[in-house]
Amino acid sequence: xxxxxxxxxxxxxxxxCAGVLAAAMMPxxxxxxxxxxxxxxxxxxxxxxxxxxxxxxxRKKADCETINGDSGAQRxxxxxxxxxxxxxxxxxxxxxxxxxxxxxxxxxxDYDWTDKILNQKISVSGGGLRQGKTKDYAVTLTPxxxxxxxxxNPTPNYRLIVE
Length: 163
Fold this sequence. Notes:
The chain is an alpha+beta fold and 163 residues long. The protein is 28% helix and 34% strand. The protein has one domain: Cupredoxins -  blue copper proteins (Immunoglobulin-like), CATH 2.60.40.420. The chain has three helices and nine strands. It has a five-stranded mixed sheet, with no helix packed on it. A four-stranded mixed sheet has the order 2-1-4-7.
């Protein structure tokens, strides 16, 4: 009886190895192309969530800190919340008319950059976005709530829900 059990175990093992080998030899399944989300920055805001250009004149970061200190919370409360399905994304961000370098930052809603403990929170950011230029920021988003903004052209923290 022991020989029969051992023989069956070996056969099952060989069948399992054959399955793994066959899977390894199969062509890789093509991943869906990332979804591109285009966003436009003007002075102190992103156009798409707010639905209009407020025409803010800004020469430096401090201008937006003052402007958004006065109107940012109200505008954010009235802004559109972006909703998407989980997956791979490219945020294509344009600096339409801001005369200084901008950036982009998307992160989990509860992301804390001061937390020194390694965690699984998402945070993707970058700068170098000069007037009239566009840059891509790639990120994979799982279900949850996120915010996006520009810390260099201080904007409100616009909401993004991933379902």
